[in-house]
Design brief:
The chain is built from 7 helices and 2 strands; from the N terminus they run E-E-H-H-H-H-H-H-H. By secondary structure, it is mainly alpha-helical.
Length: about 160
């Protein structure tokens, strides 16, 4: 998780009770947390900023929560309650709300998964192998063994690389 004030990793997680119903969570690196905790002037400025910002957020929140995906009809409030999206189009429909959430949770907004080693690297390579195997069967059926040997060698070359 990243610090909310800079780009370093957040090491301290502070939960402040603003009112009985309102809780503010801060995720800060060690330096920013030190500044936040030990500079009372900055803390007072932040608390004065919370009031006006809260009223702006409260007026925007119902509109944001009622936004819905045009494809599946899922409302953002439903996503917040369940933690599940309805379809792949929801990522685009709720992009502004999901981007900071994904950055905080995963540190990235793009999936960088692994692929199995045995699968061909690209679709083009895979489709070329399919075509070559068909050519090999046709060459063997025609009894064109020299052509079949060349195709077989090309298949081996593609599979090894």
């Amino acid at each position: 998780m990243k610090c909310q004030k800079c780009t370093k990793a957040a090491t301290l997680h502070i939960t402040e009770l603003v009112t009985e119903e309102q809780v503010e969570e801060l995720h800060l690196c060690e330096e920013c947390a030190h500044k936040y905790l030990y500079n009372p002037q900055q803390q007072k400025q932040n608390s004065t900023k919370i009031g006006p910002m809260a009223s702006v957020e409260e007026s925007e929140e119902p509109a944001m929560l009622n936004r819905e995906c045009q494809v599946c009809g899922l409302k953002f409030v439903d996503f917040r309650n369940t933690g599940r999206l309805g379809c792949p189009h929801d990522y685009q429909a709720f992009r502004e709300e999901l981007t900071p959430l994904l950055e905080n949770i995963h540190g990235e907004t793009r999936h960088c998964g692994k692929t199995p080693r045995r699968l061909p690297q690209t679709k083009q390579k895979e489709s070329e192998l399919v075509v070559l195997r068909k050519m090999l069967l046709q060459a063997v059926n025609k009894e064109a063994y020299e052509e079949a040997a060349k195709v077989r060698d090309r298949i081996r070359q593609l599979e090894e690389s």
